[in-house]
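Thread amino acids onto this structure.
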């Protein structure tokens, strides 16, 4: 009979203590992610903005997010991971409160852009810090654990946010500010800088790295992000056209978070046994194929089954992909590489709703989901083609 300790270690990977400080910070921050999911409700129901104005505000938040990840990647390689993360957490807390207090239309738009920027400056630093702390052979599990924490927090946050909003919408902003502050204090007092002084000196020049393999994987990530956004955004429009209510869409998309929380840790135990290009190729096929299954959905169960399939693709890709970017990066450019990759996902989040909405309104359901299947196939082929160059790069790094 196995002793309890090996079983626990098999479920929860043995990772450095500093990684777990990052992990807890991520979980705390995501559990308090109240404002962004409810921002449009706040703007329309409390400030009486039009739907178009609220949509513009969300787009501007996305612009801030995109710029943040691109620029913060360079900065975190110059100033260090810790400083950027602490700045992001305390700055986010301040701007959360400002959003709740500012009522002037144009001023609030500006504050929302800055909120999107400051909130997302921490992302490249966190990814780079994981790569600094964890050896290559354990990175799939480390990034998988971080991804699981994000989704666990995302499953809890809307429940708490709903309770707070029923009392007073301002509680959302102050609650989010409190969790951001707690995360910032955790980073400030317990997390040690992972970027060495010699690495910081190497990373002083702010320039795009000359690495075609990085850009190939970044483009594949961008395409995958476009597909994911169809599931989270455009699917609601497609279901609405077919007569499904918002509550029915909510039940359908809730399957996504449930699967990731339940299967996130088992996925980290199983997926590292397979070559990463194979996992990413299969994940792309599951994502594209799952979205195509929406064509065959004739009732709510059909839509839920389709969500199950593409969620498995999301789970596989997001468990593995960050470790590839981390392995490609020289130690002094890990923030830059993470920032470039993150900016591509931010760009996908900005462009995908317009792209999917245009296909849906102009050509209909079948064309939209068929195009998703085609893009999934293209991504899968890209990962299979990139497998050999990736293997060569890993061999050269290990020498």
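Threaded sequence (399 positions):
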């Amino acid at each position: 009979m196995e002793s309890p300790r090996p079983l626990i270690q098999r479920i929860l990977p043995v990772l450095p203590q500093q990684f777990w400080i990052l992990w807890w910070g991520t979980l705390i921050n995501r559990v308090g992610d109240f404002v962004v999911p409810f921002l449009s409700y706040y703007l329309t129901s409390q400030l009486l903005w039009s739907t178009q104005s609220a949509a513009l505000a969300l787009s501007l938040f996305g612009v801030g997010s995109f710029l943040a990840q691109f620029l913060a990647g360079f900065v975190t390689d110059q100033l260090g991971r810790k400083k950027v993360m602490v700045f992001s957490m305390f700055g986010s807390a301040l701007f959360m409160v400002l959003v709740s207090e500012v009522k002037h239309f144009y001023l609030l738009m500006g504050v929302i852009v800055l909120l999107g920027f400051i909130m997302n400056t921490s992302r490249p630093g966190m990814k780079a810090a994981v790569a600094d702390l964890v050896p290559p052979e354990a990175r799939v599990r480390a990034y998988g654990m971080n991804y699981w924490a994000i989704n666990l927090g995302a499953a809890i946050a809307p429940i708490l946010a709903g309770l707070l909003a029923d009392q007073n919408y301002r509680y959302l902003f102050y609650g989010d500010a409190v969790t951001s502050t707690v995360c910032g204090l955790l980073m400030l007092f317990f997390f040690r800088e992972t970027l060495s002084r010699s690495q910081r000196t190497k990373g002083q020049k702010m320039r795009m790295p000359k690495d075609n393999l990085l850009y190939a994987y970044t483009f594949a990530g961008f395409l995958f992000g476009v597909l994911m956004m169809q599931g989270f955004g455009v699917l609601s429009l497609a279901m609405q056209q077919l007569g499904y209510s918002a509550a029915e869409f909510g039940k359908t998309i809730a399957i996504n978070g449930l699967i990731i929380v339940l299967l996130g840790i088992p996925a980290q135990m199983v997926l590292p046994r397979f070559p990463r290009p194979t996992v990413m190729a299969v994940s792309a096929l599951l994502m594209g194929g799952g979205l195509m299954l929406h064509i065959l959905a004739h009732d709510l169960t059909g839509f839920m089954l389709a969500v199950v399939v593409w969620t498995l693709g999301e789970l596989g890709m997001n468990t593995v992909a960050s470790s590839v970017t981390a392995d490609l990066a020289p130690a002094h450019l890990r923030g830059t590489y993470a920032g470039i990759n993150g900016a591509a996902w931010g760009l996908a989040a900005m462009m995908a709703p317009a792209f999917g909405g245009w296909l849906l309104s102009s050509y209909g359901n079948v064309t939209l989901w068929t195009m998703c299947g085609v893009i999934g196939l293209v991504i899968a082929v890209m990962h299979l083609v990139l497998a050999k160059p990736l293997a060569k790069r890993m061999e050269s790094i290990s020498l």
